[in-house]
Protein backbone atom coordinates (compact mmCIF):
# COMPACT_ATOMS: atom_id res chain seq x y z
CA UNK A 1 0.00 0.00 0.00
CA UNK A 2 1.29 3.49 -0.81
CA UNK A 3 2.55 5.32 2.29
CA UNK A 4 4.09 2.21 3.89
CA UNK A 5 7.69 0.92 3.68
CA UNK A 6 9.06 -2.48 4.64
CA UNK A 7 12.47 -2.50 6.43
CA UNK A 8 14.99 -5.14 5.50
CA UNK A 9 14.13 -7.19 8.58
CA UNK A 10 10.83 -6.49 10.27
CA UNK A 11 7.15 -5.78 9.83
CA UNK A 12 5.56 -3.07 7.74
CA UNK A 13 5.52 0.27 9.58
CA UNK A 14 3.02 3.02 8.53
CA UNK A 15 4.76 6.34 7.81
CA UNK A 16 2.01 8.70 9.02
CA UNK A 17 4.18 11.85 9.36
CA UNK A 18 5.30 11.43 5.75
CA UNK A 19 1.68 11.05 4.63
CA UNK A 20 0.59 14.18 6.45
CA UNK A 21 3.47 16.21 5.12
CA UNK A 22 2.84 14.97 1.60
CA UNK A 23 -0.83 15.85 1.84
CA UNK A 24 0.00 19.35 3.03
CA UNK A 25 2.36 19.86 0.10
CA UNK A 26 -0.25 18.53 -2.33
CA UNK A 27 -2.92 20.79 -0.84
CA UNK A 28 -0.74 23.87 -1.24
CA UNK A 29 0.15 22.89 -4.80
CA UNK A 30 -3.48 22.18 -5.69
CA UNK A 31 -4.56 25.53 -4.27
CA UNK A 32 -1.93 27.39 -6.26
CA UNK A 33 -2.86 25.49 -9.40
CA UNK A 34 -6.54 26.28 -8.91
CA UNK A 35 -5.80 29.99 -8.56
CA UNK A 36 -3.66 29.89 -11.70
CA UNK A 37 -6.34 28.09 -13.71
CA UNK A 38 -9.09 30.40 -12.46
CA UNK A 39 -7.10 33.38 -13.68
CA UNK A 40 -6.96 32.07 -17.25
CA UNK A 41 -9.81 32.58 -19.76
CA UNK A 42 -10.98 29.03 -20.48
CA UNK A 43 -13.23 28.76 -23.55
CA UNK A 44 -14.84 25.52 -22.38
CA UNK A 45 -15.28 26.47 -18.71
CA UNK A 46 -18.91 26.98 -17.80
CA UNK A 47 -19.85 30.39 -16.36
CA UNK A 48 -21.24 31.06 -12.92
CA UNK A 49 -19.72 27.94 -11.34
CA UNK A 50 -19.78 27.99 -7.52
CA UNK A 51 -16.01 27.41 -7.24
CA UNK A 52 -15.23 30.16 -9.77
CA UNK A 53 -17.60 33.14 -9.41
CA UNK A 54 -18.18 35.19 -12.52
CA UNK A 55 -15.67 38.05 -12.77
CA UNK A 56 -16.76 41.59 -12.12
CA UNK A 57 -17.65 43.90 -14.98
CA UNK A 58 -14.37 45.77 -14.44
CA UNK A 59 -12.37 42.54 -14.74
CA UNK A 60 -14.17 41.71 -17.98
CA UNK A 61 -13.48 45.14 -19.46
CA UNK A 62 -17.13 46.06 -19.97
CA UNK A 63 -17.92 49.36 -21.69
CA UNK A 64 -21.22 51.18 -21.16
CA UNK A 65 -22.66 52.47 -24.46
CA UNK A 66 -25.80 54.26 -25.60
CA UNK A 67 -27.75 52.86 -28.56
CA UNK A 68 -30.09 55.13 -30.54
CA UNK A 69 -33.54 53.68 -30.94
CA UNK A 70 -34.83 56.09 -33.56
CA UNK A 71 -38.05 54.17 -34.21
CA UNK A 72 -39.43 55.19 -30.80
CA UNK A 73 -39.95 58.52 -29.09
CA UNK A 74 -40.24 59.38 -25.44
CA UNK A 75 -42.96 61.57 -23.94
CA UNK A 76 -41.24 64.77 -25.12
CA UNK A 77 -40.78 63.47 -28.65
CA UNK A 78 -36.99 63.15 -28.38
CA UNK A 79 -35.25 60.06 -29.84
CA UNK A 80 -35.03 57.29 -27.29
CA UNK A 81 -31.74 55.56 -26.47
CA UNK A 82 -30.93 52.28 -24.79
CA UNK A 83 -28.14 51.72 -22.31
CA UNK A 84 -26.11 48.63 -23.19
CA UNK A 85 -22.93 46.87 -22.06
CA UNK A 86 -20.26 45.96 -24.59
CA UNK A 87 -17.66 43.24 -24.00
CA UNK A 88 -14.80 42.88 -26.45
CA UNK A 89 -13.45 39.37 -27.11
CA UNK A 90 -10.30 38.27 -25.27
CA UNK A 91 -8.43 37.45 -28.46
CA UNK A 92 -7.55 39.85 -31.25
CA UNK A 93 -10.32 39.97 -33.85
CA UNK A 94 -9.59 38.11 -37.12
CA UNK A 95 -9.09 40.06 -40.33
CA UNK A 96 -12.77 39.88 -41.21
CA UNK A 97 -13.88 40.97 -37.75
CA UNK A 98 -15.12 39.10 -34.70
CA UNK A 99 -18.52 37.43 -34.46
CA UNK A 100 -20.89 39.14 -32.03
CA UNK A 101 -23.65 38.00 -29.69
CA UNK A 102 -26.57 40.26 -28.79
CA UNK A 103 -27.72 38.89 -25.43
CA UNK A 104 -31.27 39.56 -24.19
CA UNK A 105 -32.03 39.52 -20.45
CA UNK A 106 -35.03 37.91 -18.80
CA UNK A 107 -37.98 39.55 -17.04
CA UNK A 108 -35.89 40.26 -13.91
CA UNK A 109 -33.63 42.61 -15.85
CA UNK A 110 -29.85 42.69 -16.08
CA UNK A 111 -28.97 43.68 -12.54
CA UNK A 112 -28.67 42.46 -8.98
CA UNK A 113 -30.69 44.41 -6.37
CA UNK A 114 -27.47 46.26 -5.49
CA UNK A 115 -27.69 48.71 -8.40
CA UNK A 116 -28.41 49.38 -12.04
CA UNK A 117 -25.10 49.81 -13.83
CA UNK A 118 -22.13 47.78 -15.07
CA UNK A 119 -21.03 47.05 -11.49
CA UNK A 120 -24.38 45.42 -10.70
CA UNK A 121 -24.68 43.09 -13.71
CA UNK A 122 -26.05 39.72 -12.62
CA UNK A 123 -23.65 36.82 -12.28
CA UNK A 124 -25.44 34.87 -15.04
CA UNK A 125 -24.75 37.64 -17.55
CA UNK A 126 -21.18 38.25 -16.40
CA UNK A 127 -20.54 34.51 -16.61
CA UNK A 128 -21.88 34.26 -20.14
CA UNK A 129 -19.88 37.34 -21.17
CA UNK A 130 -16.71 35.67 -19.91
CA UNK A 131 -17.50 32.38 -21.64
CA UNK A 132 -18.39 34.00 -24.95
CA UNK A 133 -15.47 36.46 -24.90
CA UNK A 134 -13.06 33.58 -24.31
CA UNK A 135 -14.50 31.91 -27.41
CA UNK A 136 -13.73 34.99 -29.52
CA UNK A 137 -17.13 36.71 -29.47
CA UNK A 138 -17.91 40.34 -28.83
CA UNK A 139 -21.01 40.56 -26.62
CA UNK A 140 -23.65 43.27 -26.27
CA UNK A 141 -26.23 43.29 -23.45
CA UNK A 142 -28.94 45.88 -24.22
CA UNK A 143 -30.98 46.99 -21.19
CA UNK A 144 -34.64 47.12 -22.21
CA UNK A 145 -35.90 47.89 -18.69
CA UNK A 146 -33.58 50.41 -17.00
CA UNK A 147 -34.06 53.27 -19.49
CA UNK A 148 -37.81 52.79 -19.09
CA UNK A 149 -37.72 53.13 -15.30
CA UNK A 150 -37.89 49.41 -14.42
CA UNK A 151 -34.28 48.30 -13.95
CA UNK A 152 -35.17 45.35 -11.73
CA UNK A 153 -37.77 43.82 -13.92
CA UNK A 154 -41.37 43.23 -14.82
CA UNK A 155 -41.81 39.59 -13.75
CA UNK A 156 -44.78 40.32 -11.48
CA UNK A 157 -46.64 42.53 -13.98
CA UNK A 158 -49.62 40.99 -15.70
CA UNK A 159 -48.87 40.20 -19.33
CA UNK A 160 -51.68 42.33 -20.76
CA UNK A 161 -50.59 45.35 -18.72
CA UNK A 162 -46.91 45.29 -19.68
CA UNK A 163 -45.81 48.39 -21.55
CA UNK A 164 -42.50 46.71 -22.36
CA UNK A 165 -43.95 44.02 -24.60
CA UNK A 166 -42.75 41.85 -27.44
CA UNK A 167 -43.00 44.63 -30.03
CA UNK A 168 -40.89 46.96 -27.86
CA UNK A 169 -38.20 44.37 -27.27
CA UNK A 170 -38.10 43.41 -30.96
CA UNK A 171 -37.48 47.07 -31.81
CA UNK A 172 -34.69 47.11 -29.21
CA UNK A 173 -33.10 44.09 -30.90
CA UNK A 174 -33.23 45.76 -34.31
CA UNK A 175 -31.56 48.87 -32.88
CA UNK A 176 -28.91 46.69 -31.22
CA UNK A 177 -28.19 44.90 -34.51
CA UNK A 178 -27.68 48.23 -36.30
CA UNK A 179 -25.31 49.41 -33.57
CA UNK A 180 -23.29 46.19 -33.49
CA UNK A 181 -22.74 45.93 -37.24
CA UNK A 182 -21.43 49.51 -37.24
CA UNK A 183 -18.55 48.54 -34.94
CA UNK A 184 -15.33 48.22 -36.97
CA UNK A 185 -14.10 45.13 -35.10
CA UNK A 186 -17.28 43.11 -35.82
CA UNK A 187 -18.05 40.77 -38.72
CA UNK A 188 -21.56 41.90 -39.72
CA UNK A 189 -22.25 38.50 -41.30
CA UNK A 190 -21.88 36.67 -37.98
CA UNK A 191 -24.42 38.18 -35.58
CA UNK A 192 -26.03 35.85 -33.04
CA UNK A 193 -29.13 36.51 -30.94
CA UNK A 194 -29.13 34.84 -27.51
CA UNK A 195 -31.92 35.27 -24.97
CA UNK A 196 -33.27 33.90 -21.70
CA UNK A 197 -36.95 33.60 -20.78
CA UNK A 198 -38.56 36.98 -21.60
CA UNK A 199 -35.45 37.80 -23.65
CA UNK A 200 -35.74 34.44 -25.42
CA UNK A 201 -39.33 35.29 -26.29
CA UNK A 202 -37.98 38.52 -27.79
CA UNK A 203 -35.61 36.36 -29.86
CA UNK A 204 -38.61 34.43 -31.18
CA UNK A 205 -40.24 37.73 -32.12
CA UNK A 206 -37.08 38.91 -33.88
CA UNK A 207 -36.64 35.80 -36.04
CA UNK A 208 -40.32 35.70 -37.09
CA UNK A 209 -40.17 35.85 -40.88
CA UNK A 210 -43.89 36.69 -41.11
CA UNK A 211 -43.04 40.20 -39.88
CA UNK A 212 -41.51 42.86 -42.07
CA UNK A 213 -37.77 43.29 -41.65
CA UNK A 214 -36.54 46.89 -41.89
CA UNK A 215 -34.39 47.85 -44.85
CA UNK A 216 -30.77 48.47 -43.94
CA UNK A 217 -30.79 46.10 -40.97
CA UNK A 218 -28.82 42.88 -41.62
CA UNK A 219 -30.44 39.57 -40.81
CA UNK A 220 -28.81 37.60 -38.00
CA UNK A 221 -26.74 34.52 -38.72
CA UNK A 222 -28.34 32.32 -36.03
CA UNK A 223 -30.35 32.51 -32.81
CA UNK A 224 -30.54 30.78 -29.42
CA UNK A 225 -33.51 30.85 -27.04
CA UNK A 226 -33.28 29.50 -23.48
CA UNK A 227 -36.72 28.53 -22.07
CA UNK A 228 -38.87 31.15 -23.85
CA UNK A 229 -42.61 31.51 -23.56
CA UNK A 230 -43.63 30.00 -26.90
CA UNK A 231 -47.41 30.33 -26.63
CA UNK A 232 -47.60 33.71 -28.36
CA UNK A 233 -45.51 32.63 -31.36
CA UNK A 234 -47.37 29.32 -31.50
CA UNK A 235 -50.68 31.17 -31.95
CA UNK A 236 -49.47 33.12 -35.00
CA UNK A 237 -50.87 31.32 -38.05
CA UNK A 238 -47.93 32.21 -40.32
CA UNK A 239 -44.98 32.13 -37.87
CA UNK A 240 -41.84 31.17 -39.81
CA UNK A 241 -38.10 31.58 -39.26
CA UNK A 242 -35.71 34.04 -40.91
CA UNK A 243 -32.66 32.48 -39.18
CA UNK A 244 -31.61 29.08 -37.79
CA UNK A 245 -32.95 28.65 -34.24
CA UNK A 246 -31.74 26.57 -31.31
CA UNK A 247 -34.33 26.39 -28.54
CA UNK A 248 -33.44 24.87 -25.14
CA UNK A 249 -36.21 24.07 -22.66
CA UNK A 250 -36.70 22.30 -19.34
CA UNK A 251 -39.00 19.31 -19.33
CA UNK A 252 -40.39 20.30 -15.92
CA UNK A 253 -40.67 24.03 -16.64
CA UNK A 254 -43.92 25.24 -15.05
CA UNK A 255 -43.33 28.92 -15.92
CA UNK A 256 -42.84 28.68 -19.69
CA UNK A 257 -44.00 25.12 -20.46
CA UNK A 258 -42.04 23.31 -23.14
CA UNK A 259 -45.10 21.76 -24.78
CA UNK A 260 -45.86 25.10 -26.45
CA UNK A 261 -42.33 25.10 -27.89
CA UNK A 262 -42.78 21.57 -29.21
CA UNK A 263 -46.02 22.65 -30.88
CA UNK A 264 -44.27 25.71 -32.34
CA UNK A 265 -41.50 23.58 -33.80
CA UNK A 266 -44.04 21.21 -35.36
CA UNK A 267 -45.97 24.10 -36.92
CA UNK A 268 -42.85 25.83 -38.29
CA UNK A 269 -41.44 22.67 -39.85
CA UNK A 270 -44.82 21.98 -41.45
CA UNK A 271 -44.68 25.44 -43.10
CA UNK A 272 -40.92 25.41 -43.71
CA UNK A 273 -39.67 21.83 -44.12
CA UNK A 274 -36.11 23.07 -44.78
CA UNK A 275 -35.98 25.40 -41.75
CA UNK A 276 -33.29 24.77 -39.16
CA UNK A 277 -35.27 24.68 -35.92
CA UNK A 278 -33.58 22.57 -33.28
CA UNK A 279 -35.35 21.92 -29.97
CA UNK A 280 -33.51 20.35 -27.03
CA UNK A 281 -35.64 19.52 -24.01
CA UNK A 282 -33.97 18.49 -20.75
CA UNK A 283 -36.11 16.10 -18.75
CA UNK A 284 -36.51 16.94 -15.07
CA UNK A 285 -35.09 20.48 -15.51
CA UNK A 286 -36.91 23.64 -14.42
CA UNK A 287 -36.88 27.26 -15.58
CA UNK A 288 -33.34 28.67 -15.31
CA UNK A 289 -31.66 25.25 -15.53
CA UNK A 290 -28.48 26.76 -17.00
CA UNK A 291 -27.73 28.61 -13.73
CA UNK A 292 -26.27 27.33 -10.48
CA UNK A 293 -28.88 28.58 -8.01
CA UNK A 294 -30.70 25.99 -5.92
CA UNK A 295 -34.17 24.96 -7.10
CA UNK A 296 -36.85 26.96 -5.30
CA UNK A 297 -40.39 28.22 -5.68
CA UNK A 298 -41.10 31.78 -6.79
CA UNK A 299 -44.41 33.38 -5.92
CA UNK A 300 -46.44 36.22 -7.42
CA UNK A 301 -45.95 35.27 -11.07
CA UNK A 302 -48.87 36.02 -13.42
CA UNK A 303 -50.35 32.86 -14.89
CA UNK A 304 -53.37 33.61 -17.03
CA UNK A 305 -55.83 35.67 -14.95
CA UNK A 306 -54.26 34.75 -11.62
CA UNK A 307 -50.92 35.02 -9.88
CA UNK A 308 -49.23 31.74 -9.08
CA UNK A 309 -46.12 29.89 -7.99
CA UNK A 310 -43.42 28.66 -10.36
CA UNK A 311 -40.26 26.61 -9.87
CA UNK A 312 -36.84 27.98 -10.82
CA UNK A 313 -33.27 26.82 -10.38
CA UNK A 314 -30.22 25.18 -11.87
CA UNK A 315 -29.75 21.58 -12.97
CA UNK A 316 -26.08 20.49 -13.21
CA UNK A 317 -26.60 17.78 -15.82
CA UNK A 318 -28.90 19.90 -17.99
CA UNK A 319 -26.55 22.85 -17.63
CA UNK A 320 -23.54 20.89 -18.84
CA UNK A 321 -25.48 19.38 -21.75
CA UNK A 322 -26.90 22.77 -22.71
CA UNK A 323 -23.48 24.42 -22.83
CA UNK A 324 -22.12 21.57 -24.95
CA UNK A 325 -25.04 22.09 -27.33
CA UNK A 326 -24.59 25.87 -27.33
CA UNK A 327 -20.86 25.53 -28.10
CA UNK A 328 -21.56 23.17 -31.00
CA UNK A 329 -24.28 25.49 -32.36
CA UNK A 330 -21.99 28.52 -32.24
CA UNK A 331 -19.01 26.68 -33.71
CA UNK A 332 -20.87 25.09 -36.64
CA UNK A 333 -20.07 26.87 -39.94
CA UNK A 334 -23.70 26.46 -41.03
CA UNK A 335 -26.12 25.51 -38.24
Would you mind describing this structure in some detail?
The protein has 335 residues and is of the alpha/beta class. It has eight helices and twelve strands. It has helices at residues 16-39, 57-60, 123-134, 166-181, 198-206, 231-235, 258-271, 316-331, and strands at 4-5, 13-14, 63-73, 79-87, 98-104, 138-142, 186-196, 222-226, 245-250, 277-282, 296-303, 306-312. The strands form three sheets. The protein has an eight-stranded mixed β-sheet with strand order 3-4-6-5-7-8-9-10, with helices on both faces. A two-stranded antiparallel ribbon has the order 1-2. A hairpin with a 2-residue loop joins strand 11 (296-303) and strand 12 (306-312). Helix 4 crosses helix 5. The radius of gyration is 23 Å and the shape is globular.
Question: How is the topology of this model organized?
Answer:
Layout: E1 4-5, E2 13-14, H1 16-39, H2 57-60, E3 63-73, E4 79-87, E5 98-104, H3 123-134, E6 138-142, H4 166-181, E7 186-196, H5 198-206, E8 222-226, H6 231-235, E9 245-250, H7 258-271, E10 277-282, E11 296-303, E12 306-312, H8 316-331
Helix pairs in contact: 4-5
The total strand number stands at: 12
Helix content: 25-40%
Mean pLDDT: 85
In whole angstroms, the N-to-C terminal distance is: 53 Å
Low-confidence stretches: 1-43
Largest sheet: 8 strands, mixed
The count of helical stretches stands at 8
Strand order of the largest sheet: 3-4-6-5-7-8-9-10
Order of helices and strands: EEHHEEEHEHEHEHEHEEEH
Alpha-beta content class: alpha/beta
Q: Over all CA atoms, what is the radius of gyration?
A: 23 Å
